[in-house]
Specification:
single chain; alpha/beta; TIM Barrel; 11 helices; 8 strands
Length: 291
Protein backbone atom coordinates (compact mmCIF):
# COMPACT_ATOMS: atom_id res chain seq x y z
CA UNK A 1 0.00 0.00 0.00
CA UNK A 2 1.48 3.31 -1.13
CA UNK A 3 -0.83 5.86 0.49
CA UNK A 4 -2.73 6.56 3.70
CA UNK A 5 -5.86 6.44 1.54
CA UNK A 6 -5.04 2.80 0.72
CA UNK A 7 -4.45 1.95 4.37
CA UNK A 8 -7.78 3.45 5.43
CA UNK A 9 -9.63 1.72 2.60
CA UNK A 10 -8.67 -1.65 4.11
CA UNK A 11 -11.42 -1.05 6.68
CA UNK A 12 -9.48 -1.82 9.86
CA UNK A 13 -8.29 0.82 12.37
CA UNK A 14 -4.94 2.31 11.39
CA UNK A 15 -2.24 2.91 14.01
CA UNK A 16 0.02 5.84 13.17
CA UNK A 17 2.75 7.91 14.84
CA UNK A 18 4.09 11.47 14.69
CA UNK A 19 7.77 12.49 14.78
CA UNK A 20 9.47 15.89 14.85
CA UNK A 21 12.44 16.58 12.56
CA UNK A 22 15.80 16.93 14.36
CA UNK A 23 17.26 20.36 15.05
CA UNK A 24 20.67 19.03 16.10
CA UNK A 25 22.82 15.93 15.68
CA UNK A 26 21.96 14.61 19.15
CA UNK A 27 18.26 14.97 18.34
CA UNK A 28 18.75 13.08 15.08
CA UNK A 29 20.41 10.16 16.88
CA UNK A 30 17.56 9.96 19.40
CA UNK A 31 14.88 10.16 16.72
CA UNK A 32 16.33 7.28 14.72
CA UNK A 33 16.75 5.12 17.81
CA UNK A 34 13.06 5.63 18.56
CA UNK A 35 12.04 5.22 14.93
CA UNK A 36 13.58 1.77 15.01
CA UNK A 37 11.84 0.91 18.29
CA UNK A 38 8.46 2.07 17.05
CA UNK A 39 8.88 0.37 13.69
CA UNK A 40 8.28 -2.90 15.53
CA UNK A 41 4.70 -1.69 16.19
CA UNK A 42 4.16 -1.80 12.41
CA UNK A 43 2.28 1.51 12.16
CA UNK A 44 0.13 2.16 9.11
CA UNK A 45 2.03 5.40 8.59
CA UNK A 46 4.24 7.91 10.39
CA UNK A 47 3.98 11.68 10.02
CA UNK A 48 6.93 14.08 10.11
CA UNK A 49 6.10 17.54 11.43
CA UNK A 50 7.01 20.84 9.89
CA UNK A 51 8.36 23.66 12.08
CA UNK A 52 6.52 26.96 12.39
CA UNK A 53 7.43 29.31 9.58
CA UNK A 54 9.37 26.57 7.79
CA UNK A 55 12.05 26.26 10.50
CA UNK A 56 12.51 22.52 9.82
CA UNK A 57 11.35 22.36 6.20
CA UNK A 58 14.50 20.76 4.77
CA UNK A 59 14.71 18.30 7.66
CA UNK A 60 11.10 17.30 7.08
CA UNK A 61 11.97 16.21 3.55
CA UNK A 62 15.16 14.48 4.70
CA UNK A 63 13.49 12.55 7.53
CA UNK A 64 10.45 11.56 5.45
CA UNK A 65 12.60 10.37 2.56
CA UNK A 66 14.88 8.39 4.89
CA UNK A 67 11.88 6.70 6.50
CA UNK A 68 10.66 5.76 3.01
CA UNK A 69 14.10 4.52 2.00
CA UNK A 70 15.44 2.82 5.13
CA UNK A 71 12.38 1.51 7.00
CA UNK A 72 9.22 -0.46 6.34
CA UNK A 73 7.07 2.51 7.37
CA UNK A 74 5.01 4.84 5.17
CA UNK A 75 5.96 8.52 5.72
CA UNK A 76 3.59 11.51 5.67
CA UNK A 77 5.25 14.93 5.42
CA UNK A 78 3.62 17.96 7.06
CA UNK A 79 3.34 21.09 4.92
CA UNK A 80 2.24 24.50 6.21
CA UNK A 81 1.25 27.63 4.32
CA UNK A 82 2.38 30.12 6.96
CA UNK A 83 5.33 32.31 5.99
CA UNK A 84 5.67 30.98 2.44
CA UNK A 85 4.93 32.28 -1.01
CA UNK A 86 3.12 30.07 -3.48
CA UNK A 87 6.41 29.69 -5.35
CA UNK A 88 8.16 28.40 -2.22
CA UNK A 89 5.33 25.97 -1.55
CA UNK A 90 5.52 24.64 -5.09
CA UNK A 91 9.27 24.17 -4.67
CA UNK A 92 8.73 22.22 -1.45
CA UNK A 93 6.05 20.07 -3.09
CA UNK A 94 8.51 19.34 -5.90
CA UNK A 95 11.17 18.31 -3.40
CA UNK A 96 8.73 15.88 -1.78
CA UNK A 97 7.83 14.38 -5.14
CA UNK A 98 11.52 14.02 -6.06
CA UNK A 99 12.10 12.21 -2.75
CA UNK A 100 9.26 9.80 -3.47
CA UNK A 101 7.05 11.15 -0.67
CA UNK A 102 3.45 11.19 -1.94
CA UNK A 103 1.60 11.51 1.38
CA UNK A 104 1.26 15.06 2.70
CA UNK A 105 -0.60 16.62 5.64
CA UNK A 106 -1.70 20.08 4.45
CA UNK A 107 -1.93 22.66 7.26
CA UNK A 108 -2.32 26.41 7.37
CA UNK A 109 0.15 26.41 10.26
CA UNK A 110 0.76 28.42 13.42
CA UNK A 111 2.53 31.79 13.53
CA UNK A 112 6.27 31.36 14.19
CA UNK A 113 7.38 32.12 17.74
CA UNK A 114 3.92 32.39 19.31
CA UNK A 115 1.29 29.85 18.32
CA UNK A 116 -1.43 32.10 19.76
CA UNK A 117 -0.16 35.21 17.98
CA UNK A 118 -1.73 36.96 15.00
CA UNK A 119 -1.75 34.90 11.82
CA UNK A 120 -0.39 36.96 8.93
CA UNK A 121 -0.69 35.82 5.34
CA UNK A 122 2.45 35.96 3.23
CA UNK A 123 1.89 38.68 0.59
CA UNK A 124 2.38 36.07 -2.14
CA UNK A 125 1.05 33.15 -0.15
CA UNK A 126 -2.16 31.35 0.78
CA UNK A 127 -4.76 32.23 3.40
CA UNK A 128 -6.43 28.87 4.03
CA UNK A 129 -5.52 25.19 4.23
CA UNK A 130 -8.18 24.48 1.58
CA UNK A 131 -6.03 26.46 -0.88
CA UNK A 132 -3.02 24.34 0.05
CA UNK A 133 -5.02 21.17 -0.60
CA UNK A 134 -5.89 22.55 -4.03
CA UNK A 135 -2.24 23.38 -4.73
CA UNK A 136 -1.21 19.81 -3.90
CA UNK A 137 -3.97 18.39 -6.07
CA UNK A 138 -2.82 20.57 -8.96
CA UNK A 139 0.84 19.53 -8.70
CA UNK A 140 0.92 15.78 -8.50
CA UNK A 141 -0.68 12.53 -7.45
CA UNK A 142 -0.54 13.21 -3.72
CA UNK A 143 -2.58 11.64 -0.93
CA UNK A 144 -3.61 14.66 1.12
CA UNK A 145 -4.56 14.82 4.78
CA UNK A 146 -5.82 17.85 6.72
CA UNK A 147 -6.33 18.87 10.34
CA UNK A 148 -9.58 18.62 12.31
CA UNK A 149 -10.32 20.37 15.59
CA UNK A 150 -12.54 18.64 18.18
CA UNK A 151 -12.97 21.92 20.07
CA UNK A 152 -13.04 24.07 16.97
CA UNK A 153 -10.02 25.97 15.65
CA UNK A 154 -8.97 28.72 18.13
CA UNK A 155 -9.34 31.32 15.34
CA UNK A 156 -12.75 30.15 14.12
CA UNK A 157 -15.67 32.44 14.84
CA UNK A 158 -17.78 29.47 16.01
CA UNK A 159 -17.95 25.70 15.95
CA UNK A 160 -20.30 25.99 12.96
CA UNK A 161 -17.77 28.15 11.12
CA UNK A 162 -15.02 25.66 11.93
CA UNK A 163 -17.11 22.79 10.58
CA UNK A 164 -17.77 24.68 7.35
CA UNK A 165 -14.04 25.35 6.88
CA UNK A 166 -13.24 21.70 7.51
CA UNK A 167 -15.79 20.58 4.94
CA UNK A 168 -14.30 23.09 2.46
CA UNK A 169 -10.90 21.39 2.83
CA UNK A 170 -12.49 18.03 2.15
CA UNK A 171 -14.35 19.36 -0.90
CA UNK A 172 -11.01 20.51 -2.33
CA UNK A 173 -9.81 16.92 -2.26
CA UNK A 174 -8.60 15.94 1.21
CA UNK A 175 -8.48 12.16 1.57
CA UNK A 176 -8.57 12.05 5.37
CA UNK A 177 -8.08 14.18 8.48
CA UNK A 178 -6.12 13.95 11.72
CA UNK A 179 -7.44 15.75 14.78
CA UNK A 180 -5.55 17.96 17.15
CA UNK A 181 -4.85 16.02 20.34
CA UNK A 182 -7.70 15.58 22.80
CA UNK A 183 -8.33 13.64 26.02
CA UNK A 184 -12.10 13.08 26.05
CA UNK A 185 -13.71 10.70 23.54
CA UNK A 186 -16.93 12.71 23.50
CA UNK A 187 -15.03 15.67 22.01
CA UNK A 188 -14.09 13.49 19.04
CA UNK A 189 -17.56 12.01 18.69
CA UNK A 190 -19.21 15.44 18.65
CA UNK A 191 -16.80 16.55 15.93
CA UNK A 192 -17.57 13.47 13.85
CA UNK A 193 -21.31 14.02 14.26
CA UNK A 194 -21.01 17.67 13.13
CA UNK A 195 -19.04 16.69 10.03
CA UNK A 196 -21.44 13.89 9.06
CA UNK A 197 -24.41 16.22 9.59
CA UNK A 198 -22.76 18.62 7.13
CA UNK A 199 -22.76 15.88 4.49
CA UNK A 200 -19.06 15.04 4.69
CA UNK A 201 -17.78 11.49 5.14
CA UNK A 202 -14.02 12.10 5.09
CA UNK A 203 -12.42 9.70 7.63
CA UNK A 204 -11.14 11.47 10.75
CA UNK A 205 -8.20 9.88 12.57
CA UNK A 206 -7.96 10.60 16.31
CA UNK A 207 -4.70 12.10 17.62
CA UNK A 208 -3.66 11.13 21.15
CA UNK A 209 -0.75 11.87 23.45
CA UNK A 210 -0.11 9.92 26.65
CA UNK A 211 0.47 12.25 29.60
CA UNK A 212 3.81 11.30 31.17
CA UNK A 213 4.60 14.40 33.25
CA UNK A 214 2.64 17.38 34.56
CA UNK A 215 4.44 19.50 31.95
CA UNK A 216 2.75 17.41 29.26
CA UNK A 217 -0.62 18.86 30.27
CA UNK A 218 0.50 22.45 29.78
CA UNK A 219 2.15 21.47 26.51
CA UNK A 220 -1.06 19.85 25.28
CA UNK A 221 -3.05 23.01 25.96
CA UNK A 222 -0.49 25.10 24.09
CA UNK A 223 -0.45 22.81 21.06
CA UNK A 224 -4.18 22.09 20.83
CA UNK A 225 -5.50 25.51 21.83
CA UNK A 226 -8.06 23.71 23.99
CA UNK A 227 -8.27 23.46 27.79
CA UNK A 228 -7.40 20.20 29.52
CA UNK A 229 -10.61 18.80 31.01
CA UNK A 230 -10.98 19.99 34.63
CA UNK A 231 -12.14 16.62 35.93
CA UNK A 232 -9.11 14.84 34.49
CA UNK A 233 -6.75 17.66 35.49
CA UNK A 234 -7.90 17.23 39.10
CA UNK A 235 -6.93 13.55 39.04
CA UNK A 236 -3.45 14.42 37.85
CA UNK A 237 -3.15 17.25 40.37
CA UNK A 238 -3.88 14.78 43.17
CA UNK A 239 -0.71 12.80 42.32
CA UNK A 240 1.40 15.69 40.99
CA UNK A 241 4.12 15.15 43.63
CA UNK A 242 4.69 11.56 42.51
CA UNK A 243 6.15 11.42 38.95
CA UNK A 244 5.65 7.66 38.71
CA UNK A 245 1.99 7.98 39.66
CA UNK A 246 1.51 10.78 37.11
CA UNK A 247 3.01 8.63 34.37
CA UNK A 248 1.00 5.55 35.37
CA UNK A 249 -2.21 7.56 35.35
CA UNK A 250 -1.36 9.03 31.95
CA UNK A 251 -0.74 5.61 30.41
CA UNK A 252 -3.92 4.24 31.96
CA UNK A 253 -6.02 7.13 30.63
CA UNK A 254 -4.52 6.84 27.14
CA UNK A 255 -5.38 3.13 27.05
CA UNK A 256 -8.96 3.76 28.20
CA UNK A 257 -9.42 6.58 25.68
CA UNK A 258 -8.01 4.46 22.86
CA UNK A 259 -10.29 1.54 23.68
CA UNK A 260 -13.36 3.77 23.79
CA UNK A 261 -12.51 5.32 20.43
CA UNK A 262 -11.93 1.92 18.84
CA UNK A 263 -15.29 0.72 20.17
CA UNK A 264 -16.89 3.78 18.53
CA UNK A 265 -15.46 2.89 15.13
CA UNK A 266 -12.64 5.40 14.82
CA UNK A 267 -10.74 4.80 11.54
CA UNK A 268 -7.36 5.25 13.19
CA UNK A 269 -5.34 6.33 16.22
CA UNK A 270 -2.45 8.76 15.69
CA UNK A 271 0.03 8.95 18.59
CA UNK A 272 2.06 12.12 19.08
CA UNK A 273 5.40 10.79 20.32
CA UNK A 274 7.65 13.88 20.72
CA UNK A 275 10.33 11.48 19.43
CA UNK A 276 10.11 9.15 22.43
CA UNK A 277 9.00 5.55 22.02
CA UNK A 278 8.32 4.04 25.41
CA UNK A 279 4.95 5.55 26.44
CA UNK A 280 3.36 4.98 23.04
CA UNK A 281 4.64 1.41 22.92
CA UNK A 282 3.13 0.72 26.36
CA UNK A 283 -0.27 2.01 25.28
CA UNK A 284 -0.30 0.20 21.95
CA UNK A 285 0.68 -3.08 23.63
CA UNK A 286 -2.68 -3.02 25.41
CA UNK A 287 -4.76 -2.42 22.28
CA UNK A 288 -6.14 -4.90 19.77
CA UNK A 289 -5.16 -2.88 16.68
CA UNK A 290 -4.40 -5.02 13.62
CA UNK A 291 -0.96 -4.38 12.11
Amino acid sequence: MRTVRDRLAAGTPVLSLEFMPPRATDDADRIWQNVRRLESLRPGFVSVTYGAGGSTRDNTVAVASRIARDTTMLPVAHLTAVGHSVGELRSFVGALADAGVVNVLALRGDPPGDVSGEWVRHPEGLAYASELVRLLRDHGDFCVGVAAFPHGHPRSASVEDDTARFVAKCREGADYAITQMFFDADDYLRLRDRVVAAGCETPIIAALMPVTTMRTIARSEQLSGAPFRARLAARFAAVADDPRAVRALGIEQAILLSRRLLSEGVPGLHFITFNFARATAEVVAELAVPS
